[in-house]
């Protein structure tokens, strides 16, 4: 039974039992305190490494495309939330060390590495950024010279996903999921990934341990001495 249907039936059963209690037919409502089943937790979808590389290899035919490449590189390079990406100011960057400061949930600041490719494309974008505005603090600007909006980023990423021939819809959060999945696959360091993502609780990060059983199976096959299953 779907959870909304369960809640509907449960609510009406409880009301019916309340009526029976009021009529003296029951001493207590047996439906009181019955907890709803937990909703299934859907695993986040990610983009595989080959498709990420294809997405990033965009046609740089105008300054906004360079901006978009920089945003894509930062999103995938640091696993930022969309709100953290659009909230970046130039002062939050340290390109010499390849780091960025972001303000996450609960006003918690964290310092993150962004990777060599992201630094390179931010530098390319900064060379062109003055075409749009010179007195705006925001790192990423719209074509009107103002801080780029969440909706604009979502729209541009989706358009690039289509142009680059990806089979799945591309949105910023999917890049964050991909960052987390690929980092965990490569390092196995759940605590480290938790810190990079800015998760307050490790349980939030643990969902990524269930993402790619095929990858885990391949690791098992390659590493375990008794793994030659069926061979």
From TrEMBL:
Gene3D superfamilies: Intergrase catalytic core. Keywords: Cell cycle, Cell division, Chromosome partition, Cytoplasm, DNA integration, DNA recombination, DNA-binding. GO terms for cellular component: cytoplasm. InterPro entries: DNA_brk_join_enz, Integrase-like_cat_sf, Integrase_catalytic, Tyrosine_recombinase_XerCD. Transmembrane segments: none annotated. GO terms for molecular function: DNA binding. One of its GO terms (biological process) is DNA recombination. Belongs to the 'phage' integrase family. XerC subfamily. This is Tyrosine recombinase XerC.
């Amino acid at each position: 039974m779907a959870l909304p249907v369960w809640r509907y039936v449960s609510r009406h059963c409880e009301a019916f039992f309340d009526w029976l209690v009021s009529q003296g037919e029951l001493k207590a409502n047996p439906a009181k305190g019955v907890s709803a089943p937990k909703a299934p937790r859907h695993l986040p979808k990610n983009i595989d490494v080959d498709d990420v590389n294809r997405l990033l290899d965009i046609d740089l035919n105008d300054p906004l495309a360079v901006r978009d490449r920089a945003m894509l590189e930062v999103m995938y390079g640091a696993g930022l939330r969309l709100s953290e990406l659009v909230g970046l100011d130039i002062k939050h960057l340290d390109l010499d060390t390849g780091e960025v400061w972001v303000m996450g949930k609960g006003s918690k600041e964290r310092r993150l590495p962004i990777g060599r490719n992201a630094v390179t494309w931010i530098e390319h974008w900064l060379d062109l950024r003055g075409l749009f505005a010179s007195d705006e603090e925001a790192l990423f600007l719209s074509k009107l010279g103002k801080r780029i909006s969440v909706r604009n980023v979502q729209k541009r990423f989706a358009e690039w996903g289509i142009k680059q021939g990806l089979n799945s819809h591309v949105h910023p959060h999917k890049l964050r999921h991909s960052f987390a999945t690929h980092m965990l696959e490569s390092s196995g360091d759940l605590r480290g990934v938790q810190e990079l993502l800015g998760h307050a609780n490790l349980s939030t990060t643990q969902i990524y341990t269930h993402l790619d059983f095929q990858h885990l199976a391949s690791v098992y096959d390659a590493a375990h001495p008794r793994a030659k299953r069926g061979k």
